[in-house]
Write a structure and sequence with these properties.
The complex is a heterodimer of chains A (184) and B (581). With 184 residues, chain A is of the alpha+beta class. Chain A has three helices and twelve strands, in the order H-E-E-E-E-E-E-H-E-E-E-E-E-H-E. Chain B contains ten helices and 30 strands. The chains are: A alpha+beta (184), B alpha+beta (581).
């Protein structure tokens, strides 16, 4: 990293990720959660939802959940591009899109995958996103490379205006986002 | 809308066309029932009329009753029948720009056996749609597009759309003149600088001398004199009013949205002569299609496009406010403007126009002296192909070796290229490619375009065809390989050939080069996902190449889409010989 990028870049990177950290603090509640939900274990899930990712859309395009429900999402990337599955509000997604754009610009992400050579970066400064081995330390998000399948287990604790979305540059705009509706 | 004098609204024209279509199916093709369900029929009358732009009335040629002509909304796989009737006193034609189509249906008189539609006659176009995306249609006769003969084509894919949009608008850009195009051309032939109101003056000379040093400024002048061109000739026709969907800046065409919606905008450059820089201040655009062909989405703040090109973008306005769609021609002689708004009657600020760039000698492929162009425009001297210049004394120079070597006449002390902005003065754009994009803003570059699906033909080209874009501006002579259409040698390739087209621009103007009948794959640095284009913009002094699989037999027009350049002879015949039996 420091070998290839001038210091200026590094500064901007850090500045960029400070936002994430700040956002994390603002939303953080004990146990890694967000105001509307938290990660859970697969064994606790009462329902499995399979979502297919294509270039650049989801199937299905929307989702209905209940408050308190624990859903195991199985994310199958049938496209040729890298995709994300991220649960959040539209504002959270908008913010995350800026970060993703920066990661793409700096080569940490490529249109088709992750730059594993950059795994040696100091992830502690990155707001919890472990870009190297694709562990979703950002608990509400997972990245899925083309042809791969990943899982995310999420407890929807209380109703909110949520979307599941792919924040890879251009994908959200293209319509790779779906509404999460709550029923009682 | 610009209500045509006939009293028919655009909607009426479409209704009529629809009704005629049904009757036509039953009466004319009774034996083809199996096609009837997927056949759409239209009647397009071409007639003289008048339109009003910003409240000013002028002559126009109406196709289907309006300017622009009615938007064709089709679906991939459909069979289309169009009855085109010529109600003018002169021959006309309709060309389907960007469509993969049988030669005789392509609509270019003198090519593929197609003959212009004579006054009073009707020509029946019939073709099956083999593609999806945004295209357009226009006259291919006697500069009639300049008079309003253009309209949009929207083809829905048989599968899924590449994006999910809540609203879908066509944004047709054009340049309108009250003058008769034939008059414009004769003015240009008499004096190529006729419309160049921005000619550099003695005052400019002294300003340059102050800024860059007397010798540099003088040398620059002398070189321009040698080239017999003028450094402000960015567009050779000005005095235009720039239109969006047939509306002038004051008419303010408006598209509605609800905040939070995804809006698809299909930008089509249907102008006769204008390159536009397009932006929507406050609203980034995600480009996902170029020339009707899907590309991987790329987020930009602005893009420049040439005559004949199209870009599909998606925008997501989240706020309950209006946005201005702003398109400036590169010569900055005016602007086209429209509005995206949650409600009718809303307006956003119209941005200030950006400064007009000064062409650099680099735009002539000879950045060998004078001002330091490289640091001002980011131009790559190493790839400038100096050897391509016709008869230029500098032709043999190897720019890549020029490194930091001091160049004749260069005065680093007085150039102040970085200083222009630092001094607090307005940064002065320099060179054709300089759109005055503000720092931090992203302008679309050809290199950003990456096809959404891999190219189907991975073969290396079996031959290379060099096409030199040539001309003598002063005499308004524009041609290819030094020979005007009619005195040219057609390009011949065999069916199935894999060809590299190398465009070498030896002139000081950018040329949007259009090949009918086939897409080319632009060599923009992508490997197996080169974008497919029907128009390739070749900037001044640059070389651009594209690959092509010659899989559409015919003799296809291959020309500069600047209408007066084409009219002056910047066209040739691209012949794909059919498979021998």
């Amino acid at each position: 990293m420091s070998k290839t990028f001038p210091n200026l870049f590094r500064v901007s990177l850090l500045a960029g990720f400070t936002m994430t950290a700040a956002a994390g603090v603002a939303f953080a509640s004990p146990g890694h959660g967000l105001p509307f939900g938290e990660p859970a274990k697969a064994s606790q899930a009462t329902r499995t939802v399979t979502i297919t990712m294509r270039d650049n859309l989801y199937e299905p395009e929307s989702l209905t959940v209940k408050s308190g429900e624990i859903v195991r999402f199985v994310l199958v990337n049938k496209g040729e591009l890298l995709h994300e599955f991220n649960i959040g509000t539209a504002a959270m997604h908008a913010k995350h899109q800026e970060e993703m754009a920066m990661m793409m610009e700096h080569g940490m992400l490529t249109p088709t995958g992750m730059n594993h050579d950059m795994a040696k970066m100091d992830h502690s400064k990155m707001g919890g996103m472990n870009m190297g081995d694709m562990k979703h330390d950002d608990p509400n998000s997972v990245l899925v490379e083309p042809g791969k399948t990943a899982e995310l287990v999420w407890k929807f604790t209380k109703p909110a205006e949520l979307e599941f979305a792919c924040n890879i540059p251009g994908h959200y705009e293209s319509g790779m986002a779906g509404l999460i509706k709550f029923t009682k | 809308m610009n209500k045509p004098i006939s009293g028919f609204s655009r909607r009426d024209a479409l209704k009529l066309a629809g009704a005629a279509g049904i009757a036509g199916t039953l009466a004319v093709y009774p034996g083809r029932r199996s096609f009837a369900s997927s056949t759409k029929e239209y009647t397009l009358n071409v007639e003289a009329g008048r339109i009003a732009v910003d409240g000013v009335s002028s002559n126009a040629i109406l196709m289907g009753g309006s300017v622009p002509a009615p938007t064709m909304r089709w679906r991939e796989g459909e069979e289309i029948v169009v009855y085109a009737t010529n109600r003018l006193a002169v021959p006309t034609s309709i060309h389907w720009h960007g469509l993969l189509i049988e030669g005789v249906m392509d609509g270019a008189p003198g090519f593929n056996g197609y003959v212009a539609i004579q006054p009073g006659e009707t020509y029946t176009y019939r073709f099956k749609l083999r593609q999806a995306g945004t295209y357009w249609y226009h006259s291919h006769s006697a500069m009639q597009e300049q008079q309003g003969m253009y309209g949009a084509i929207v083809i829905e894919p048989s599968g899924r759309e590449p994006v999910r949009a809540d609203r879908d608008y066509v944004v047709v850009l054009s340049d309108h003149t009250q003058e008769d195009p034939k008059r414009v051309l004769s003015n240009l032939k008499a004096d190529a600088g006729y419309y160049n109101y921005g000619k550099r003056t003695l005052i400019d000379f002294f300003r340059d001398a102050n800024r860059y040093g007397f010798n540099t400024a003088l040398k620059d002048r002398m070189e321009w004199g040698d080239m017999r061109m003028d450094p402000t000739d960015l567009a050779d026709v000005t005095g235009y009013t720039f239109l969006i969907n047939g509306r002038g800046p004051r008419d303010n065409w408006t598209a509605l949205f609800n905040p939070g919606e995804r809006i698809r905008l299909r930008f089509i450059n249907a102008s006769a002569m204008s390159f536009f820089d397009v932006r929507i201040p406050g609203l980034p655009m995600t480009v996902f299609s170029a020339d009707g062909q899907n590309v991987q989405p790329v987020r930009v703040d602005e893009f420049r496009f040439g005559v004949g090109e199209t870009y599909d973008v998606i925008v997501l306005p989240r706020d309950d406010k209006a946005f201005t769609i702003f398109a400036e021609p590169v010569d900055r002689s005016g602007y086209a403007r429209a509005t995206l708004a949650p409600r009718e009657g809303m307006e956003a600020v119209i941005p200030e126009q950006r400064p007009r760039t000064i062409l650099s000698m680099a735009d002539m492929g000879m950045a060998h002296g004078g001002m330091d162009h490289s640091s001002m425009t980011g131009m790559d001297h190493g790839s400038m192909a100096g050897g391509a210049m016709s008869g230029g004394a500098m032709g043999g120079m190897d720019h890549s070796k020029m490194g930091g070597a001091p160049m004749a006449g260069m005065d680093h002390g007085t150039m102040g290229h970085g200083g222009a902005a630092a001094e607090g003065g307005e940064r002065r754009p320099f060179g054709w490619a300089d759109a005055s994009t503000p720092p931090g803003s992203k302008a679309l570059d050809y290199a950003d375009l990456k096809a959404s699906t891999p190219n189907s033909d991975g073969r290396e080209p079996n031959h290379e065809i060099e096409v030199r874009l040539t001309g003598i501006m002063e005499r308004y002579m524009w041609n290819l390989n030094g020979r005007p259409f009619g005195k040219d040698e057609p390009i011949r390739v065999a069916y199935g050939d894999r060809v590299r087209l190398k465009f070498v621009n030896t002139t000081m103007m950018a040329h949007p080069m259009h090949l009918h009948g086939m897409f080319v794959e632009l060599e923009n640095g992508q490997t197996d996902r080169k974008p497919r284009k029907h128009v390739v913009v070749v900037p001044p002094g640059k070389t651009v190449s594209a690959l092509l699989t010659a899989n559409e037999p015919g003799d296809w027009p291959f020309h500069c889409h600047l209408i007066y350049h084409m009219e002056a002879g910047m066209m040739t015949r691209f012949i794909v010989e059919p498979k021998s039996a």
